[in-house]
Specification:
Radius of gyration: 20 Å
Largest sheet: 2 strands, antiparallel
Order of helices and strands: HHHEEHHHHHHHHH
Structural class: mainly alpha
Strand content: under 5%
Strand order of the largest sheet: 1-2
Oligomer: single chain
Helix content: over 70%
Length: about 375
């Protein structure tokens, strides 16, 4: 039975607001000088980030008022449309840096992989809410979800985008765990997943080179180890309190993707360990309150949906920070709410809007 809608979760609102605000400030700080020199407009990336944040907040506000229970009916159609969009990327996608990940024209483009992450969470929550009793059966219960995961991850990997495919696979795996899948099956699935990642690395020479550079970046300082080294130099230069907002040097053509995938390195340099720790703390608060919402949701669908949304944000943040700090091989994935990027920011805020919607029914 549905409970009467109550107030929003204060801590989710606070953590989202702080991370979004820090992200907007850091996007401007990281990009202003180089965009002024290259594009003649120091506010080029800031203006676009503000527009995307505004659109994302509109989407979040809409999801606050849209009863999340109706998402269960829309789960299958939304997933189907998302898979079609992934197929279109492989046919007519816009290429950048050797990857075709966007659909659209110029600045009006978006990443279907960001759509599929949200669509997968909604579909899995809806399906598991009705079929979790079948999960103990590997073929009839777990099999269809694994087949879906393989198809979606294969389409994302074909772009190519290993980071997002790992995030989707990780989110699916943990949602199946939360739903009560057999531990033996999960263990075998984990082994198969590790094997698939290893195979994906081996079959792509550039991924193998990145992995080798990850093991010893200093041996490949002018090649695939360059990003990691420059990122670590930025983090190390920040010390405890940082060099000061706008005073970082590594953003001056040293750290690649400084306002997108590696923005956490620039933030660590300019705001120091204190600033980086605040980002980590607010992500932890977001995860804590997300799972609290999942535990207290009034129905199984809401519980799985809140857990899935929380897991999705947590995995993406962990992968991004792991790459930036040299703990994981370099792969292109943004830091939710903080990195520059329209699709990531908009759909992250939409997902948080759904999470806040569930929190209204979850009680204190």
């Amino acid at each position: 039975m549905r409970r009467r809608a109550g107030t929003l979760d204060f801590w989710i609102v606070l953590s989202t607001s702080v991370l979004l605000g820090m992200g907007i400030i850091m996007v401007f700080s990281a990009s202003a000088l180089t965009s002024s020199y290259n594009l003649g407009d120091a506010f080029f990336y800031l203006k676009r980030q503000l527009i995307w944040a505004f659109l994302g907040l509109i989407g979040m506000s809409f999801m606050l008022k849209f009863d999340y229970h109706y998402l269960k009916r829309l789960a299958a159609p939304v997933l189907g449309i998302s898979i079609i969009l992934l197929l279109l990327v492989l046919i007519i996608g816009i290429s950048s840096h050797g990857s075709a990940r966007w659909l659209g024209v110029g600045s009006l483009s978006f990443q279907p992989s960001e759509v599929i992450k949200l669509a997968m969470v909604i579909f899995l929550a809806a399906s598991l809410a009705d079929n979790r009793h079948r999960l103990k059966n590997f073929i009839q219960g777990l099999g269809p979800y694994l087949a879906l995961m393989v198809v979606v991850c294969a389409l994302i990997l074909a772009q190519p985008d290993l980071g997002t495919s790992v995030a989707v696979a990780g989110t699916t795996y943990l949602m199946l765990t939360v739903a009560g899948a057999d531990r033996r099956h999960l263990f075998m699935l984990a082994l198969a997943g590790v094997g698939a990642v290893v195979l994906a690395i081996i079959l792509a020479p550039y991924r193998m080179a990145r992995f080798t550079a990850f093991l010893d970046p200093w041996a490949y300082a002018q090649g695939y180890g360059y990003q990691t080294i420059q990122s670590l130099l930025a983090i190390g230069s920040g010390g405890l309190f940082g060099t000061g907002l706008g005073q970082g040097r590594q953003k001056l053509y040293y750290v690649p993707e400084k306002h997108t995938d590696f923005i956490f390195a620039i933030l660590s340099e300019e705001l120091g360990f204190i600033g980086a720790a605040l980002v980590v703390i607010f992500f932890l608060v977001l995860v804590w309150r997300g799972f609290n919402t999942a535990f207290k949701a009034p129905d199984t669908f809401g519980s799985f949906l809140a857990a899935g949304l929380t897991i999705m944000l947590a995995i993406q943040a962990l992968i991004n920070m792991g790459v930036v700090t040299g703990m994981l091989p370099v792969t292109g994935i943004t830091l939710p709410l903080v990195s520059y990027g329209g699709s990531s920011l908009i759909f992250s805020l939409v997902g948080i809007g759904i999470l806040l919607n569930i929190s209204r029914y979850a009680g204190s």
